[in-house]
Amino acid sequence: MIGVDILEIDRIKDLADNEKKLKKIFTKNEIEYFNKFKNKYERICGHFCAKEAVKKAFFCPKNLSFLDIEILHNIDNSPYVLIKKQINKKIHISISHSRTVCVAMCLIEE
Question: 57-64 long-range contacts, Cβ below 8 Å, gap at least 24?
Fold first, then answer.
């Protein structure tokens, strides 16, 4: 199963500047990761796209919330997905951005 999402970075700035809204979508670990960077908008947008791509790959199950999906990073800074519910599937994620747009792709192995 495949999911993809793309979003203009400018569209995420209102969310990124509102801590209450951020906490409804992103985990504490993700927010700490964003705050390490001078320009956090790209990372927030990329993670948002990644979560959307995961939801699309799972055909948007209603029982899978944004907070159930956590985007973390390996030592080499490559992203990986942690699902906080019992899902026995291998999930691959890729996130990329330009100065204005972020895109993420998710592949779930059967």
Answer: 57/1, 57/2, 57/3, 57/91, 57/106, 57/107, 57/108, 58/1, 58/3, 58/108, 59/1
